[in-house]
Design goal:
- Two copies of one chain form a homodimer.
- With about 140 residues, the first copy, chain A, is of the alpha+beta class.
- Chain A has one domain: Nuclear Transport Factor 2, Chain: A, CATH 3.10.450.
- Chain A is built from four helices and six strands; from the N terminus they run H-H-E-E-H-E-E-E-E-H.
- In chain A, strands 2-1-6-5-4-3 form a six-stranded mixed β-sheet, covered by helices on one side.
- In chain A, helix 1 packs antiparallel against helix 2.
- Chain A is globular and about 40 Å long.
- The N and C termini of chain A lie far apart (about 45 Å).
- In chain A, about 40% of the residues are buried.
């Protein structure tokens, strides 16, 4: 499969969330940069570094073939000609299930190279809507 | 207090973790950009956008005056002349306590402006060393 060229970050990000929604591993991996040391943090799991580890994590996550509804909102953007950072709120739900899990916060970093914009970092973590208030010591350690 | 000029990202990041270790709100806020829409995600809490919200969160976290030992490791860097992204593992412990909490993963984004490098985004989340393996559906939603 020839690699698509994403001429904008919006295209690359749409491809990322579309691949996530469809459990499509090949489509997911076309979004990631092959020229950088990529980083992926799935919520509440250790950090993954390198394309092989990132690919394997998506392969495992997609093994069930679950179809999702994915929507992002409240983008905050920091960018220049070659590097773009998006911070978004992710709303993800399993198709056919009524339960709406709490949203996630994701920081997505893209670089521009010969094949257009590619993802180099995806850091996702839970965003509880009513977080418990931690005690001082714990709060501090949990900064 | 006149604002320090951080001529490198390393200086800005050292100032950030030093302020965190000393619960020093003024020092912490000198690290943050006043020219960008800043974002701060403390672990397991909702995203904060804007300098006022970010400052208030650190004020609350520092209210106990706890002294910390803070060390970062395994930096992964993505950078150009005006924008730098660091992804680090944070090891944070309360001084005088034996308990070592699990490490955190942090994505730190810096921009370069008139006052040198400043922090525009800090996204921290827990990095469990032995995460539980989620079921397929849950894993997928937790992507």
């Amino acid at each position: 499969m020839s690699k698509p060229i994403y001429t904008s970050v919006a295209e690359a990000e749409a491809a990322f969330y579309d691949a996530l929604a469809r459990s499509d591993l090949d489509a997911m991996m076309t979004v990631w940069s092959e020229d950088d040391e990529v980083v992926c943090v799935h919520p509440d799991t250790p950090r993954l570094v390198g394309l092989a580890a990132v690919r394997e994590s998506w392969r495992q996550l997609f093994a069930g073939g679950t179809r999702l509804q994915v929507r992002t909102s409240h983008h905050v953007v920091c960018q220049n000609m070659l590097l773009t950072i998006h911070n978004v709120i992710e709303h993800v739900a399993v198709e056919g299930e009524d339960r709406l899990p709490p949203p996630m916060i994701a920081t997505n970093v893209y670089t521009r190279g010969a094949l257009g914009w590619r993802l180099v970092m995806h850091h996702a973590s839970p965003a509880p809507e009513n977080p418990h208030a931690p005690a001082h010591g714990a709060a501090h350690v949990m900064h």
